[in-house]
Amino acid sequence: MPDFFSTAIAHPNIAFIKYWGNRNNELNLPASGSLSMNLGALTTRTMVRFAPSLAADSLILNDAPAQPLALERVSRFLDRVRELAGTPYHAVVTSTNNFPTGAGIASSASAFAALSLAATTAIGLQPDEASLSRLARYGSGSACRSVPTGFVEWLPGDTDADSFARTIAPPGHWDLVDCIAILHSKHKPVGSTAGHRLADTSPFQPARLQGAPTRLAVCRQAILDRDFNTFAKIVERDSNLMHAVMMTSIPPLFYWEPASLELMKTIPAWRAEGLQVCYTLDAGPNVHVLCLSKDVPEVKKRLEPFPQVQRVLVSPPGGAVQLVTD
Ligand code: PMV
Fold first, then answer.
1. CA-CA distance, 74 to 276, in Å (whole number)?
2. Going by CA atoms, what residue is nearest to atom 10 of ligand 1?
């Protein structure tokens, strides 16, 4: 095999109905379904080159050699691609994000979605969208949702074959925008891989899971109907339920900063005044503030004066993972 390379870009996604906890950690089968939107303004770009001459895999992240643990995770993922292709060759992986690293924006979803497409293409495979989503799932669960375009649902499935994500609506369906309030943070949060394994230690996880299919159905319909008020209430509730599980696991995981809570109290008050806005938080202190594109200037104007808000990143819905030729 000669040198074969390929480059792909992918967007991270924000979950409206969250995934927290697995029913099978080896296969990354989630305990419940989830629903998200790709973030079109944020991009990971990844180049993969397989070559017979390479003695080992290597990984350059944002122009610097990656930490050994990150390389190990990528190498394990490439083993799966090599097995699919029946090829022994190692690879050079070069990946850059156009969004600030260390600001608490999880990049694993866009990283493994881009890596899945770049690596499979470079090695000569042509998986369909569902197979690519299944593959990305092994890198990081939420990465399966960064493969299809727009508003995306991850079907939890019972086996490897039926646990993948699919589009429920294209990016142009609804002019929803994520205004991410990046907070000054003193803490380095526990990563989601470790966090998922703690979910079952919370007595609240069964109750959260019991209501998850209904919340997902309500949220899916609210997106399809562009019904902001129904959407806002279910999205905030689902985020709060996930954080209740996190805070009551053993050991407990406290992802919020004081300013996270302040915003969580303030945003529903803005909504009560008539501004269409709601919040959701992932495994970190940053507050994802969802609104319609016409209200972005107003939302930014209200968020920026909070002393702990470092900056506000704004993103509309984004497309699917895709190959780039330049
Ligand atoms: O895919 P992971 O392991 O990074 O987990 C993502 C977990 C949350 O972001 C907190 C929720 C979600 O559904 O994206």
1. 40
2. 282
* Other CB atoms within 10 A of residue 206 CB: 11
Single residue among 149, 171, 193 that ends a domain in this structure: 171
My answer on whether 30 and 82 are in the same domain is yes
Nearest to 105 by CA among 13, 7, 30: 13
Question: Given ligand 1 and candidates 38, 138, 142, which is best to mutate, with the most ligand atoms within 8 Å of its CB?
Answer: 142
Distance CA 299, CA 316 (A): 14
Residue 260, both tokens: 């996270």
**What residues does ligand 1 touch, defined as CB less than 6 Å away?**
15, 18-20, 34, 106, 108, 140-142, 192-193, 196, 282-283
For residue 323, tell me if it sits in a domain: no
User: Would you give per-residue pLDDT tens digits along the chain (326 residues)?
Assistant: 556 899 999 999 999 999 999 999 999 999 999 999 999 999 999 999 999 999 999 999 999 999 999 999 999 999 999 999 999 999 999 999 999 876 778 789 999 999 999 999 999 999 999 999 999 999 999 999 999 999 999 999 999 999 999 999 999 999 999 999 999 877 777 888 899 999 999 999 999 999 999 999 999 999 999 999 999 999 999 999 999 999 999 999 999 999 999 999 999 999 999 999 999 999 999 999 999 999 999 999 999 999 999 999 999 999 999 999 86
Identity of the amino acid at 253: L
List the one residue out of 92, 111, 108, 2 whose CA is nearest residue 48.
Answer: 92
Q: How far is the CA of 210 from the centre of ligand 1 (A)?
A: 19
**Final residue before a domain boundary, out of 127, 150, 171:** 171
User: How many secondary structure helices (H) and strands (E) does the chain include?
Assistant: 8, 16
Who's near 297: CB < 8 A, 6+ residues apart?
A: none
